[in-house]
Write a structure and sequence with these properties.
Elements: H1 3-22, H2 32-35, E1 38-39, E2 44-52, E3 58-68, E4 75-76, H3 79-85, H4 102-108, H5 111-114, H6 118-130
Antiparallel strand pairs: 1-4, 2-3
InterPro entries: PAR1
Organism: Quillaja saponaria (Soap bark tree)
Keywords: Signal
Length: about 140
Amino acid sequence: MAFSTKLPLVLLLSSLFIHASLAELVCEELPKDVCAFSIASSGKRCLLETSNEEDGSVEYQCRTSEVVVERMADYIETDQCVKACGVDRNSVGISSDALLETQFTTKLCSPACYQKCTNIVDLYYNLAAGEGVFLPDLL
């Protein structure tokens, strides 16, 4: 086989190795148990969604949202922060209703969360701001 016929194969393999070496974080490639509270290489938040299958079952999928996080990318939230902040990685979507629960806001504003888990705090800070509320005022 001549080199010119091997060139497309060489280029394809090279692009795969470059992609793997860059270790790009793509939401759609994340398993569902680390999807929520992760941020893709693009700086966009990952979110867990459901889809109904033909057999009636529900499948979870990790998707890229349109929400861009300033100054943060390639990030998967730690289990310590998930626990400290009282959030659930298996929750689908996010709602400001959680901010009305005193137990949740107490954990979110605790030093273990508020001072060490900037990703989660930023998410809920912006959610509260969207509702016209300053997060620390919820306590």
